[in-house]
Amino acid sequence: MPKWRLPRVLAAILFVTIGLLGKARAESVDDFYRGRQINMIIATNPGSGYDIYARLLIAHMGRHIPGSPTFVPRNLIGAGGLRTGEYIYRIAPKDGSHIGTYTRGLPFEPLLGQNELNMDPLQFTWLGSMNRETSVAFSWGTSAVRHVSDLRVRELLTPGTGAGADSEIMPLAFNNLTGTKFRVIKGYKGTAEATLAVERGELDGIAYWSYGALNAVHRHWIEGRKINFLFHTGAGELTFLPAVPSIHSLVRNETDRQALDFILAREALGRPFFTSPGIPLDRADALRKAFSAAMRDPALIADAQARQLDIGLVTGQQIEDILQQASKAPPHVLARVKEALER
Questions:
Q1: pLDDT, tens digit, for every residue of 306-341?
Q2: What is d(CA 294, CA 292) in angstroms, rounded to the nearest whole number?
Q3: Fewest CB atoms within 10 A around its CB: which of 76, 155, 156, 216?
Q4: pLDDT tens-digit map of 105-136
Q5: b/e string for 250-289 if b means 16 or more Cβ within 10 A?
Q6: Do 98 and 38 touch, CB atoms closer than 8 A?
């Protein structure tokens, strides 16, 4: 190649490269999302509470995102939700094209020394939660355990749906902090399978399940009085469960109360949604705004009411604040939490 042509070739390559980089930098949120599909990665089985909320969200959120992308749901089940967390944290493109939801307790696990996947929950881009939860423990109507006082003298067989799942963590904590006698039977693939086992008499009840999800999926159990409510996790009396005690009333001392408060802090995360760490700031801002807008959308609210789903916005910033506050728990409280969870 003649020497005089080399600078022209290099100049042309440089011109194209700079142009492409400039286009990438200048790509607006609208440009990125127009015509795109966003993958919604759901850590639980189809038909579970988390799955129902996720599919409600994706029916409405897209129109609030610049470019109006569509959503594709994908259930990625395993390790109590950790597979979904790892996928969003480490594998999915860090561009805002993948959103995940997993069990509300998992972001607290690293604070308790359970972090085999080396994930920092504060590095996720938190979009928000669709509600704050109050959960319940209940027995099947034919069980000999009909009141919480019975639960302190008789075992109640309940399902475990995976290491790290609330269904296995919470009964253990309740037993050690309040004197209940839950016995977890492990190996169930999800809540749907576990509830069938309860109906068949294979299990006696469930130690920890969102009241909102229970009301949405098995409202006939409540209306038909097929179950006995043993306690709820709210701070005081609940108008919709007036004769049911709070688990807080069963705690025996102040350290145990603080430990229980730490464990139940997950309920403020309700149904959390997040995307990858390090996505472009303008996309993170757009997704957070779209999540909040969807939660205020009359169409989503009407859809939720028709399905008997409890809705209440928790912003991404509020989730970050909750996790930051949990990270400041006193050492003696964390020690008691670990002891209660037998770690």
A1: 998 999 999 999 999 999 999 999 999 999 999 999
A2: 5
A3: 155
A4: 899 988 888 777 789 999 999 999 999 989 99
A5: bbeeebbebbbbbbbbbbbbbbbbbbbeebeeebbebbbe
A6: yes
Q: How confident is the model at residue 8 (pLDDT cuts 50, 70, 90)?
A: low
Residue 159, both tokens: 């399902």
Amino acid at 182: F
Long-range contacts (CB closer than 8 Å, 24 or more residues apart) made by 174-178: 174/137, 174/207, 174/208, 174/247, 176/339, 176/340, 176/341, 176/342, 177/251, 177/252, 177/256, 177/259, 177/260, 177/340, 178/247, 178/250, 178/251, 178/252, 178/256, 178/260
Spell out the alpha helix ranges (H) of the chain.
Answer: 6-26, 29-33, 49-58, 82-86, 148-151, 166-178, 191-200, 211-217, 219-223, 254-264, 281-295, 298-306, 316-326, 331-340
Residue 255 tokens, joined? 């350290």
Q: Quick one: which of 266, 217, 244 has its CA closest to 151? A: 244
Domains annotated on the chain, with CATH: 34-132+270-330 (3.40.190.150), 135-265 (3.40.190.10)
Neighbours of 11 (CB within 10 A): 10
Instruction: State how far the Cα of 65 lies from the Cα of 34, in Å rounded to an integer.
Output: 9
DSSP 50: H
Tens-digit pLDDT profile for residues 215-250 = 888 999 999 999 999 999 998 889 889 999 999 999
| pTM score, whole prediction | 0.80
Sign of the C-alpha dihedral, residues 38, 131, 102, 240? Answer: negative
Sign of CA dihedral 95, 98, 101, 102: negative
CA distance 263 to 341: 10
CA atoms of 153 and 175, how far apart (whole Å) = 11
Following DSSP, what letter does each residue of 95-144 receive, concatenated?
Answer: TS-EEEE--TTGGGGGGGT--TT---GGGSEEEEES----EEEEEETT-S
Edge-to-edge strands, sheet with 135-140: 205-210, 135-140, 227-232
Q: Which residue has the higher pLDDT, 2 or 108?
A: 108
Positive or negative CA dihedral for 147, 153, 155, 158?
positive
